[in-house]
Amino acid sequence: MSRTPALPILIVLAALAAAGPAAEADARKPRVNDKVWSPNYTASRSRRIRYVVIHTVQGSYAGAMSWFKNRSSRVSAHYVVSFKGRLGQCVKDKNIAWHAGNWSYNVASIGIEHEGYVSRRNNYTTPMLRKSAALTRFLCDKYRIPIDRRHIISHKQVPGSTHTDPGPYFPWRRYIRMVKQAGGPRTRPVSTRAVVFKGFGWVRKKPAQGGAKLGKAPKGQRFVRTHRRGNWLRVWYDGRAGWIREKSVRTLSRVPLVLVRAKHQPRLAPEPGAERWKRFLAKGQLYARDARENAPGWFRIWLGPRQAWVKRDKVRTLVR
């Protein structure tokens, strides 16, 4: 404890920008049992979170949080994990905890303290590792941190550190394996292409069979895939992100796509005074264009169970 790209790249980046760096985590955040807020932090971040730094308290769970609450200690960490798997939080993720002893790493990391001592061989209990791994997996998913030893690091690895924690008995191989297993498959970007439903299906809010439905997808309905998680594809549906089973669609080639350039509300006909679609489309969303239907200044796109029209000056057309 211490105290202008190529076009294919453009399409992927646009989809990722729409999702946002912390829009959706695959794994759920484990329950925080104790919130003891430390005054020792710097408000807000100017840099992306790139690391999770693993620490050992050199003391008890309660003692660590008491120490972090003490303004004169001038140290803190975001989280503390006990032997029994109890989870405490002392600094919010959006703020900079004073834990790494290196400002460049403080501003780009989340610090997790673990109860106990680096010299004790059996210090890292299974409940502790399980809770810590679940937390790290959540953080890695939320902030798009790679799950590897270059990004999940020890305090000792921080440049300039004089500390040795978490010490020689921390089970790194087991821990990284537990982090990977904690949330199942990760959501990853895929090459953006149009897909078409082979039969009637559903678009769901989460990538899980039997989960809440976002809407129906009749045979022939077209979407644009942007991400994959396991055997599920993420698509834009009626202005919202949804998930479809990969086996329920086939991929299309050379289909014109529409990238929304600015917040826009489609219309049901290609006329300025026509009835508006019920929802707005946000910048960065991608939809398949129906090239069979055109009107001066308008494109017809596949939105959900129906089609609608968007103004050409609000979108950019792409072919994939």
Number of helices: 5
CATH topology-level fold name of the largest domain: Lysozyme-like
Which range does the strand content fall in?
25-35%
Distance between the termini: 51 Å
Q: Give a quick account of the main beta sheet: strands, pairing sense, barrel closure.
A: 6 strands, mixed
The percentage helix is 10-25%
CATH class of the largest domain: Alpha Beta
Overall mean pLDDT stands at 90
CATH superfamily of the largest domain: Peptidoglycan recognition protein-like
Structural class computed from helices and strand pairing = alpha+beta
Helix/strand order, N-terminal first: HEEEHEEEHEHEHEEEEEEEEEEEE
Structure description:
The structure is a single chain. 17% of the residues lie in helices and 31% in strands. Strand 18 and strand 19 (307-311) form a beta hairpin. Helix 4 (126-143) crosses helix 5. It has 2 domains: 25-182, Lysozyme-like, CATH 3.40.80; 188-319, Roll (SH3 type barrels), CATH 2.30.30.40. It contains 5 helices and 20 strands. The strands form 5 sheets. A 6-stranded mixed sheet has the order 1-5-4-7-3-8, with helices on both faces. Strands 14-13-12-9-15 form a 5-stranded antiparallel sheet. It is α+β, with helices and mostly antiparallel strands.
